[in-house]
Amino acid sequence: MALRADAVRNRERVLEGARSAFADLGADAPVEEVARRAGVGIGTIYRHFPDKEALLLAVLDHQSQLCLAWVEAALAEDDPWAGFSGLFRALAQEFAEDRFLIDAARLRRRTDAAESYLRLVQGTQDVIDRAHLAGVLRPGIDADDVPALLAVAWEPSWVEDERWPTYVEIILDGLRVDVPLR
Amino acid sequence: MALRADAVRNRERVLEGARSAFADLGADAPVEEVARRAGVGIGTIYRHFPDKEALLLAVLDHQSQLCLAWVEAALAEDDPWAGFSGLFRALAQEFAEDRFLIDAARLRRRTDAAESYLRLVQGTQDVIDRAHLAGVLRPGIDADDVPALLAVAWEPSWVEDERWPTYVEIILDGLRVDVPLR
DNA sequence: CACGATACGGAGCACATGTTCCGTTTGTCA
DNA sequence: TGACAAACGGAACATGTGCTCCGTATCGTG
Fold this sequence. Notes:
2 copies of one chain form a homodimer. By secondary structure, chain A is mainly α. Chain A has helices at 5-25, 31-38, 42-48, 52-76, 80-97, 99-110, 115-134, 145-149, 156-161, 164-175.
C-alpha cells in the first residue's frame, strides 16, 4: 500500500526543515528545531526516520548530489588545474554556506555514508587524478585530503569574517605545481 | 587569611585534571571527568572556580604561556621567514596535541580572553610584522588569521591520520612570497 | 588535644535534547 | 458519507551535564 498523500507531503517537509536547520546550526540542531521549521510535530519526524542519524544521512545524500554538479563541471573543463581549483573553490563555498557539510565528513567516519557522498568522493578523486597526470598538483594529495584542507572555511566565526576565500587561495597556491614552459 | 594547605594542593590538582581532560576531549569534557582526573569531588572544582567557563579560561591562560615560548624562539631567529614558519609549525603541533586549543579560539570570541592569550596573539603579530617588513610573507595576513589556517590540524579524526604536517607545509608554501635574488 | 573555621564530596536539582507512546485527527475507499 | 486504517502532535520519559547545597571531614591554632 502506498503512502497516504499527507505522509508524502510531510516527509518532504521534514527533509526541507532538516536541510535548513542543519545548514544554519550544524548537525547539532535539535530535532525539535527541525520539526519547527518543517511545520510538523516531533512524532512525525520519527515516523519517517528511525532516528536522528538517519535524518542526517538523508540530508547528506541530498547535499552530496548538489555538490556532484561541481564535479561534473570540473571534469568538463579542458585544463586540469582549472578543473581542480574550480572544484575546490566551489566546495569551499558550499562548506561556508552550509554548516552541516562541516559535520558530514566526521559523520562519514562513523557510519556507512550516504551513497551520493561516496560518489562525490570518487568524482573528486577523478578530478585529482587528472591533475596529477598533468603534473600540476602537488604529489601525494588525494580526495580524502580535500575536506581537511577545506577546514579553513568551516568555523562559523571565521565564515562571518569573509576571509575564507583568501585562505582558499593560499591553499591552492600551496597545492599547485608550476609546470615550466618549454 | 591565606588558603589552607589542602586547598592550595587541590586547586593545583584541579588545574592539572582540567588540562588533561580538555587536551584529550576538548572543551566539551564533562566537569565530572575533570574531577575524576583531578581526584577530587565536583564540589571542590566549583569552590575554586565560579563556573566551567572560568576553568576553561584558566587552562587557556596556562597553555598560552607555554606557546609564548615559541614566540620568543621565533623572534630570536635571524631570518624572518624561518621565525614565522617555525612558529607556525610549532603552533600546529600544539594544536594537534591539545584538542582544547581548538576550542580556545572560539572561546576567545565569546569572552574576555585570558591575559596570556592576548600576549600570545600580540607576539604572533610581532613575528608576522617582521616577516612583512622583509617582504617574505603574503600581504594582508595578520595574527587573527593564524588560528583559522591552523584549522587543518584540528579535527581529531584527521589528526590520527598524521597528515596534518603535510597540510601545514602546503599552507606555508602558499603564504610565502619568494624574494628574487639580486 | 580540642575546637572553630575552612574545605571537601557527591547527592540532587535544573535544563537540554533524543526518543517513545498514545489519544486525536485526517485521508481513503466503499 | 461513514468507518477504519494511517498518520499526526506533543506530553512524557531517559539520559547527559552544569551547578548548588549541606552534612561530613580536615586543617590549624591556642
